[in-house]
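Section handout 9: paired folding examples.
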Amino acid sequence: MIEDTGTIDIKTINEKIEKESAFVDLLTMEMNKVIVGQKHMVERLLIGLLGQGHILLEGVPGLAKTLAINTLSQAVDGTFSRIQFTPDLLPADVVGTLIYNIKENDFSIKKGPIFANFVLADEINRAPAKVQSALLEAMQEKQVTIGDETFILDKPFLVMATQNPVEQEGTYPLPEAQVDRFMLKTVIDYPKMDEEQLIVRANLRGSFEKVNPVVSIKQILNAQKAVREVYMDEKIEKYILDIVFATRYPEKYKLADLKPLISFGASPRGSINLANAAKCYAFIKRRGYVIPEDVRAVVHDVLRHRIGITYEAEAENVTSEDIINKIVNEIEVP
């Protein structure tokens, strides 16, 4: 597959990507000082960071979600802020507000916690719609308006929102259109027994290693540019589009049995993010070209929140995960 592309010099791209992605191992090692296991979550955070996207993490409390993004911000030498979402939160608590200054007889701007490289939106589904939309405007536009002034947010800008799947009392579920703004939705599970043993030991000793900044903001920004240069063959593009179109028109892909289970399929944003995430995954694996395995590795995280399931599917206990599995198993790999 790679030999056909004589016009595009894969070898040069590969060498460039190998050089640019050298920091990935350093960053992972630094995070592993504090984060035990959870390899999947750490990888997804890196994909979000390199792909200039945002991540929605779902998992029960106590799985090191907060710790992970905090550790990442320390290892990247970026600024970190955490917003604990509550039902009485106001948009001004997130983006900032105008404060009247008596001495100056004028308004001054007090910036909110959104002005950071890494923002943890803890339990995003606990805040009312106004606050959610203030955060999502910042995520989408990468800018914030306070009063009549607009501020461009610092780069890189990564929002990691968490939601607790267990408790539904006093929550405001994110509407589909807002969930779609997240590049990835990652579901985290409990650690393995031997990993948890290490976590318990480290906590009882109270001796976590200090995380040092091993990557500069400049390196991350260069890496974000380099990711775009990762080569994607037309066959891989077609493979991505087949997967996305199968969520919309399953009957055209010999998957007619899925038709009554899907209320809506993935949007073009799904295709863009799937291609982008596959490139980021190839970059993390230090390759200058995308292979079908890269697409398969990220497809669940990119599409699980972009497929609507019908009441019929719920009645049959079919999840969007099951639908993605069926599609990926049916569609021919290039």
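Moving on to protein 2 of 2.
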Amino acid sequence: MANSAIQNKLMDLQSNLLNFAYMLTGNRDDAYDLLQDTTLKVLDNEEKFAENVNFKGWVFTIMRNIFINNYRRVVRSATVIDQTEDLYHLNSSQDSGIDSVEGSYSAGEIMAAINSFSDDYRIPFSMHVEGYKYNEIAEKMHLPLGTVKSRIFFARQRLQEMLADYRY
């Protein structure tokens, strides 16, 4: 296909591509950025387009792949890798909000709410919050795995109900 034919087909697809980009990103500015990246990628790689391939499908696949690659890049850059010898950063809270008066008050209320649970719910829930896995809790408490999971689930639900006014 000639360069001008590919460019014309690409220009005809711009509104469809923008709709697809908006569906992927959910943000108008990000959608325009994704559309621009896709248009440039298609124009840079137009010699790779094979005549017998669906042009629209090819372009939409390029857009989807750019979106996926950008998403993976953002996730990778947001991942914190602790390379300190004693893993200090993993054990310290990053921004718990407890340093503020409002945060400590909320933490105190949360602890009071958890402590108001019966031992059947408080102990497995507290162990789960401390980082124990379900099967470890089940072994230590001599309970079936399903019982531990349901108790933690119900404790979490009860906590959400008790602290519902802190949601928003």
